[in-house]
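Methods: example folding runs. The two proteins below were folded one after another, and each record is reproduced exactly as written to the output file, sequence line first and structure-token line second.
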Amino acid sequence: MTLKLSQVMSTLQTKREDLVTFDDRSRDSLNLYRTALQEISSLSHETILQSLKGIDSEQRSAEPLEPLGDWGYWVKPFGKEWENREQSLAWARDRITNIATMAVDGSQIYPSKDISIPIALVQVGWYENFHTDDGQYQKDVAFDIMTPSELRVNNSGEPVDRRVNMRRFEMEVEHLIAYMEDHAFCETCLAFFDGSLVVTFAEAFDIETRQHYIRSVSRLIEASDRYQVPLIAYIDTSYARDLMGLLRCLRPTLPEAPSLVDASLVGKYMQWGDRTPLFRCRRPGILTDYPGPIANQIAFTYLKAHNAAPVRLEMPVWMVKSNRYEQILDWVRCEIIIGQGYPYAIETADQTAVLTTEDRQTFYRLLQEWANQEDLKLRFSRKMMSKARRR
């Protein structure tokens, strides 16, 4: 049955006052923060650092890794404009030719209640673009099948889908680490991680699950440092509030404003290619569970990549100390230009990894054929068989 548009509009109208009140409060808080940002960004870098000295490092949310007193509203202008896409592509080609960019993404088929044996499939796809004149690239997939013991189906208190997501995350990290190992000390390559190195989402999970994600990203950060391969974690829609927290440290009278995020704070003042200074992430919470040497090794910046809010880029702190970050950030801009608003490497890795409805049906058919061959009593529900016939 189709959605009844008249009922939707009527219900929205009855909820209008609540939505308007929320929007007004958010706007008022945002204006307060922007005023504070304007004032603080006019202070010298030394004054800001002096103000932070009396605040515990684990409560600062962020620490500057670049001077903050040089740019209004903490926005560093990119300073380039093009009249058309051809000009921007020419700029990108001039900087990224013969630079290899690589990304990994994953997909999965969760266990189905319509199959008598719990089983899942996890697939990761990767794409490496060498940016050569002849268009050379590599892409491939790898997969894993998770059995009932790996899914821990006997543990009724743990959602099975969570184990699948954990395995997918682990496989994505493993392939990035393998790439870095194979390209150790490469000065002409860049690895993309689609997601954040600060796994705040894991705070909602049990200790074992939380530690699984922390171990994975910690290994990734360590590998980037050990092999000196640049790593950019790309978050297209970020809900991080690290700059908001830093401003509250410097101006304690500011309201908490939980609905506001960093991207909305600085985005108003940015043109394409602009970025914020680089900061060290000091977010309270999950980072206290990271291994000591890793907890303070994540840097971030916000970059204007398209017409929407700026994206968040995270990287290991060694990249900042190496003084190569400006060149690497230009490589990121090039990828965004080629991908028309989104890094082409990540987009293509996603297309490579995705499992379609046809793939799902093929997997179930092969599973059934194999089960018959092995004399396993695998049963599919009538509901699944009915859907298969209709489709």
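Second run, written to the same file directly after the first:
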Amino acid sequence: MEPVEGGPVLRAADVDVVRDGNVLLRSISLTVRPGEHWALLGPNGAGKSTFLDLLGAVKHPTRGVVEVLGHRLGRVDVRELRSLLGHVNPRHSLDSALRVREIVLTGATNTIELVPRWTPSVEEERHARELIELMGMTGKAEARWPHLSQGERGRALIARALMPRPRLLLLDEPATGLDLAAREQLLSSLDTLRRENPALATVLVTHHLEELPASTTHALLLREGECMAYGPVDEVLTTDLVSKCFDHPVRISRVDGRWSARA
């Protein structure tokens, strides 16, 4: 399966998600084009992770249309489609003590563990080294998973997600559990990644504006399963709209490309 060239990377049109009689998403639409970097924001329970699961071909909508890399969910082998995406989940369920280099290489096989009797090619080994360097992890290439900090794990998982050279990278709260230094290292790495891969599109889920990289271009605000606003980031991340989304008065400021919120 090849990505369909020339169109949007993602398209969702009038999407509803209903589970056990509960409406989790209602009439959500979104189009993501190459080179755009979207932030998906909202309070806990707003439906962010549910929407990301649709975009990552993990779940199907109850109603509406979702197209990923030009392929419509419901008319495509989603297992094959997922192999074309980069999906970063900080709750990566790795049980064995793989080295960083090995973790990154599992991105080539789209597996959690190394595939028995599988040997990476010379090109795959080279690509893995380049991604480890890009994410600032060269000195940790032989370090094992249990000995990595939360921030180091996050950067290793981003490198892993980039192994298949995806056109789309999905990041589910990548800064969860990071201290200040680790968060800043991660966001700096994301800015570098986006700058060096101008055609890459990304969608990052968070509920903290401080966790948004400066390279963010667009934003969508979700509240109780409904879209409150979406579009260019400076038009959406305003004091008025963010206050309404989180149902709390806040003042939004942006300094050196980074956002902060204060009561």
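Comment on the second run: The chain has a mean pLDDT of 91.
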